[in-house]
Write a sequence for this structure.
């Protein structure tokens, strides 16, 4: 089955817009005509070559929304086996055989995607861009907040608060009643302030904020040491991402040892959390923040993301 797609043929190089053979659907597959696909921070790490097990050519994209027989649908971004101990425990995000779209198989930067039928779910409305912009980051926020035991009054510091994950995370935290301290760039500070109790633009932000209960660490290597300095004794840092794909090094490990910090990795989200995110967006509890690009302009979208010219999520439309 040949479709027009944005193909990554070499890491750190522009995508090629071309016809590409994505294979043929099997007996348990459906063909989803893509209407909108979000660009995830994970995609950027892959584009840079940060996943050494992946080799081009690749069609990226696991945030996929479109149509099947005229019905508005979304696709769960990873395929799981459903039988491993984690899947059976409702933790399919930890599946030992998990395979993301855009990595093990062609993803959403294309006119159509072949997906297992049990990976496809109906949407409550056909605002595809809204869901492409915010379901993945919001489900990520839901999962990470659970790991950090965030609730009313919890003091939470969020790095990268103006990015695609961050701007939806701070909205979700406010809906939980948390006290939100956002770290962002000066250019995004005014917008981020709408959903924050404090906004800090300094690189050495630990000089201004102390003793937070939880850190949702979205940026990774560039900010994690400042985040740990701001974290209270017995506080929890939830490591959500590492945007540059660089080695994470603790400059003062004794600080974390002596304060008994907890550092927890947050692996995406479960299917239940995806549907929870869809419901929050459908009800208008969370407002999606995004900029759209025609999928043929994917290279411009990546250039804007890399140079921090996008507030929220970049979404490819078809």
């Amino acid at each position: 089955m040949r479709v027009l797609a944005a193909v990554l043929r070499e890491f750190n190089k522009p995508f090629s817009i071309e016809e590409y053979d994505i294979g043929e659907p099997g007996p348990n597959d459906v063909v989803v005509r893509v209407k909108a696909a979000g660009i995830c921070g994970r995609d950027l790490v892959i584009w840079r070559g940060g996943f050494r097990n992946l080799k081009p050519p690749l069609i990226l994209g696991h945030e996929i929304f479109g149509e099947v027989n005229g019905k508005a649908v979304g696709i769960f971004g990873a395929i799981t086996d459903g039988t491993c101990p984690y899947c059976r425990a409702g933790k399919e995000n930890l599946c030992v055989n998990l395979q993301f779209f855009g990595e093990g198989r062609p993803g959403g930067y294309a006119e159509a995607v072949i997906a297992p039928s049990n990976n496809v779910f109906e949407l409550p409305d056909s605002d595809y861009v809204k869901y492409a912009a915010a379901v993945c980051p919001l489900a990520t926020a839901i999962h990470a907040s659970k790991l950090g035991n965030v609730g009313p009054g919890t003091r939470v510091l969020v790095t990268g608060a103006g990015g695609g994950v961050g701007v939806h995370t701070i909205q979700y935290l406010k809906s939980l009643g948390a006290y939100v301290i956002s770290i962002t760039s000066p250019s995004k500070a005014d917008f981020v302030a709408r959903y924050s109790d404090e906004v800090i633009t300094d690189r050495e932000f630990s000089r201004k904020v102390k003793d937070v209960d939880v850190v949702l660490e979205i940026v990774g290597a560039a900010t994690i040491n400042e985040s740990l300095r701001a974290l209270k004794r017995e506080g929890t840092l939830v490591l959500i991402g590492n945007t540059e794909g660089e080695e994470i090094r603790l400059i003062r490990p004794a600080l974390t040892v002596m304060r008994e910090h907890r550092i927890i990795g947050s692996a995406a989200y479960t299917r239940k959390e995806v549907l929870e995110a869809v419901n929050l967006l459908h009800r208008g509890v969370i407002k999606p923040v995004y900029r759209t690009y025609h999928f043929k302009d994917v290279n411009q979208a990546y250039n804007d993301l890399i140079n921090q010219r996008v507030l929220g999520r970049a979404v490819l439309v078809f």
About this structure: The mean pLDDT is 96. The chain is about 25% helix and 25% strand. The CA atoms of residues 40 and 73 lie 19 Å apart. The longest strand covers residues 29-38.
